[in-house]
Amino acid sequence: MAALRPSLGAAQNAQQGAGGAGSSELTPAQSGVDASKDLAAAGWKPLFLDEHQNETLIVLSDLMIPATDTPGAKEALVNRYIDVVLAAEKSEAQGAFLNSLGYVDGESMRRFKAAFRYLSREDQDDLLHGMAYPRSGSKWTGEAEAKPDMGHGHFEALKQRIMTAYYSSQIGTQELGWDGAFTHGIFKGCEHPEGDHK
Question: What is the value of pTM for the model shown?
Answer without folding.
Answer: 0.70
